[in-house]
């Protein structure tokens, strides 16, 4: 029903550069008819450097969170050398932007042709799996290659995360022994990976998953070379302010150090959201107000899929000059299509006098926002403007700096 078409393969339309202090306000002055995506390269660069410097292991970017070629280039330029790809199109995309990048194929169920192309054409050596069938498929597709890193995906709890990834993939407790053993025989390096679910709100999620890893290693009695803690690193949204990322990193590192693995074992992570959430926001126009409902020109089939289908809240700012002095009020949004489901309950806080013709910036849409856009019902847009002001919320701006800048903190 929902056509998820991503930016994959679509040449990114002309980005204009707008070096201004307040990107959204500047756009509002131009009175665009269609929604406009604002991108903040400095915010993505800052997130990449944070992971590269502070996570005590390898950070690979999970491309599905936002497959923008511009973003991949920024991450590459700021030290992200490895990419978690889930489809052959993502592998091709990464290699076209950064030919030297290393792609790891971390989808546990892959077409055999995709594995073969990844291995023979793009030099991919790392594959994840959660079944004996997939192991056989990988060995067939790579003609029994002897240089593979095979990561067995364990099923772990998503109880601490806002978005579950616990049911589709992963071997459960008691089922991992046979697969770990078989993968050990086939692999040059054996890894164990998992995903605690997206937007994990506490480091405990990783501590608990690492206990599952420990049990699986002890049960199978195999030598493990890679521990991959997956994604799930949170960003900050209204009502979902997580503890500092450093606490997640500390918990993970401590758990890693205590596992029964060799000294040379590597620690990997696959952050998606945390690397790109602050990268973009969208400027929308209010076309109509009906009570506390605002009809805006982007929605469930555009960049607001998560707001519609997961009830996710995003920070919002009214882009009006002079600023409204009216007190904030909770609003819900309707998107532009004719579909009742094109509804975002929010609540989104905006000055109570917001009205048709006003422009609103919706923040933190860099992850799973732009990536989910469709052109359903004739409403699609890809005008992108690069700005250099701060995102509405940032996990990466030191507190002192935040106090003195004009960052709107919700
Ligand atoms: C989606 C996904 C990620 C990224 O998850 P975030 O919650 O965005 O960090 C990483 N690894 C795998 C296997 C995924 O499916």
How would the blueprint of this fold be written?
Blueprint: E1 15-18, H1 23-30, E2 36-39, H2 41-54, E3 58-62, H3 69-77, E4 82-85, H4 88-97, E5 102-105, H5 112-122, E6 126-129, H6 132-141, E7 149-153, E8 161-163, H7 176-186, E9 189-193, E10 198-200, H8 204-220, E11 226-228, H9 245-257, E12 266-269, H10 273-276, E13 280-290, E14 293-296, H11 305-309, E15 316-318, E16 328-334, E17 343-351, E18 359-362, E19 384-387, H12 399-404
Parallel strand pairs: 1-19, 2-19, 3-4, 3-12, 4-5, 5-6, 6-7, 7-9, 9-11, 11-12, 14-16
Antiparallel strand pairs: 2-13, 8-10, 13-14, 13-18, 15-18, 16-17
Helix pairs in contact: 2-3, 4-5, 5-6, 7-8, 8-9
The chain binds pyridoxal-5'-phosphate.
Pyridoxal-5'-phosphate binds at residues 62, 64-65, 84, 106, 195, 198, 230-233, 270-274, 367.
Keywords: Lyase, Pyridoxal phosphate
EC number: 4.1.1.17
Pathway: Amine and polyamine biosynthesis; putrescine biosynthesis via L-ornithine pathway; putrescine from L-ornithine: step 1/1
